Amino acid sequence: MSYEKLFGPYLDGATRIVVTDPYIRIFYQIRNMMEFVEMVIRRKPPEDQIAIHLVTGPDEGNIASQRELLDSITEAAAGTGVEFTWAFDGTGTAHARDIATDAGWKIVLDRGLDIFQPPLRKAQGFLLGDRLQEHRMIKNFYVTYVRDAHR
After folding, report:
1. Model confidence over 67-117: pLDDT tens digits?
2. Order of strands across the sheet with 105-109?
3. Helix, strand, or coil (residue 84)
4. Are strands 50-56 and 82-88 parallel, antiparallel or unpaired?
5. Of the options 3.30.930.10, 3.30.870.30, 1.10.10.10, 3.50.50.60, the CATH number for the domain spanning 3-147
């Protein structure tokens, strides 16, 4: 399983992608967001410009680190043809998680981008799961794809 297989075909042709997930707060969750951005960069034609906007909730105990990590995604994406922006949900009541595109798809996610088990750590050595999503254990989750009939 990978973001590429789950989301890739539904993102093709989009110029604006909005990810709503109030739980992109700590390092591994923000790493998931970075991997989503990387997947979009790999899939898009070089001439296309795509905007990805994340709406998430603040990590009240660690907002400074959360901001720094999210800003690092913005910096990493600079010059790739993908503009990553983010904002905190101002209502504080958001719970639903989805990905909406201007290409007519809405992807409803019960777990958001958090579909992988945390990697097992070894004192030394390398694990394919650290770099390749296809080699990670997954959590139970569901995805619903909704097509906008007006597109």
Report:
1. 999 999 999 999 999 999 999 997 776 778 999 999 999 999 988 888 877
2. 82-88, 50-56, 16-20, 98-101, 105-109, 143-147
3. strand
4. parallel
5. 3.30.870.30
pLDDT at 26: 86
In the chain, where are the structural domains located?
3-147
Tokens matching residue 150: 């007006």
List b or e across 103-137, with b for residues whose CB sees 16 or more CB atoms inside 10 angstroms: bebbbebebbbbbbeeeeeeeeeeeebeeebeebe
How far apart CA 9 and CA 4 sit, in angstroms, is 8
